């Protein structure tokens, strides 16, 4: 039984690895890839998604460009992590496959309308602007969503962009608030989990040892952005945040978390975009998300390497 997914993304090297993991996994049917401004501006995210599809030999996957800025705030990007292209680390050819004419938000709405209720999983790997815009424009589609499995937020690890906020949520907190309050089942893959899935030299060399263009690209990307996290956190490697979303779909047993209430701060400039996760259940607020905290890093990298080997 294949699971139908839409990947909403802002590639970014770790987004690229997540896309590759999905395309290398026969259990998942990627209905389309929708792009949003985030790690780099929209023109680059929609180009990078196509570069990754071509790298995987999957020119059949449809890529759509979506929202080029957050709902209410100016766009914040992260070239300081991902390089000026978003995929710095290895030179890759310009994509030749076409970007779809349809807007990503229209694709999300049309696809969810046409599928049976509860059969499509949304996998947002970047700011939640596209998803929130689709839900605002066509609230009836929310009932069609099987799950929203998103990379974003933090509680124990607090913020990586401000002292309080993780990048994806901080870029568009108003969109995040809409998604967290939508009523569909939400799974949150926060920094608390992803920071436990660090690259190591043997893990990166295992990608390179695949001896394929995909293996070489993933090894080079991880080499590139690893330097930023190692300098920032003093860690031995860098977290591969976004592939954890796809890994959770494939192997939820690799992760541990709690079903709790998560609210998004949208008023205070000091804590804007904070994911206020009621981990200790000290409020009476209704739980609205499965919030992950732990991942079996060895199991995650074994799965990732095995699936990348298929491409």
From TrEMBL:
Q: Which GO terms describe its molecular function?
A: purine nucleosidase activity; uridine nucleosidase activity
Q: Matching InterPro entries, A to Z?
A: I/U_nuclsd_hydro_CS, Inosine/uridine_hydrolase_dom, IUNH, Ribo_hydro-like
Which cellular component appears as one GO term in the record?
cytosol
BP GO annotations: purine nucleoside catabolic process
Q: Does the keyword Nuclease apply?
A: no
Q: Which UniProt keywords apply?
A: Glycosidase, Hydrolase
PROSITE patterns hit by this protein: IUNH (PS01247)
Which residue range or ranges hold the Inosine/uridine-preferring nucleoside hydrolase domain? Answer: 5-301
What is the protein name for this chain? Purine nucleosidase
The scientific name of the source species is: Rhodobacter viridis
């Amino acid at each position: 039984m294949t699971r139908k997914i839409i990947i909403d993304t802002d590639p970014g090297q770790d987004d690229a690895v997540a896309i590759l993991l999905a395309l290398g996994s026969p259990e998942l049917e990627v209905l389309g890839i929708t792009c949003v401004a985030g790690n780099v501006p929209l023109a680059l995210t929609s180009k990078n998604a196509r570069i990754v599809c071509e790298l995987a030999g999957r020119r059949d996957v449809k890529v759509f460009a979506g929202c080029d800025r957050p709902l209410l705030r100016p766009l914040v990007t992260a070239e300081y992590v991902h390089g000026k292209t978003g995929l710095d680390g290895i030179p890759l050819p310009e994509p030749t496959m076409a970007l779809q004419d349809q807007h990503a938000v229209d694709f999300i709405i049309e696809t969810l309308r046409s599928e049976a209720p509860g059969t499509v999983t949304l996998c947002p790997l970047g700011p939640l602007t596209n998803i929130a815009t689709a839900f605002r424009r066509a609230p009836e589609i929310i009932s069609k969503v099987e799950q929203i499995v998103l990379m974003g937020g933090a509680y124990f690890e607090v913020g990586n962009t401000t002292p309080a906020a993780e990048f994806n949520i901080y870029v568009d907190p108003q969109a995040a608030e809409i998604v967290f309050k939508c009523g569909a089942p939400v799974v949150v893959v926060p920094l608390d989990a992803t920071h436990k899935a660090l690259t190591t030299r043997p893990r990166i060399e295992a990608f390179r040892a695949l001896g394929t263009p995909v293996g070489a690209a993933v090894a080079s990307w991880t080499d590139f952005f690893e330097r930023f996290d190692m300098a920032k956190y003093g860690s031995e490697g860098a977290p591969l945040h976004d592939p954890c979303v796809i890994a959770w779909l494939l192997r939820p047993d690799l992760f541990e978390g709690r079903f709790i209430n998560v609210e998004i701060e949208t008023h205070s400039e000091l804590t804007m975009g904070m994911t206020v996760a009621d981990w200790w259940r000290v409020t009476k607020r209704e739980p609205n998300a499965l919030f992950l905290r732990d991942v079996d890093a060895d199991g995650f990298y074994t799965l990732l390497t095995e699936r990348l080997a298929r491409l």
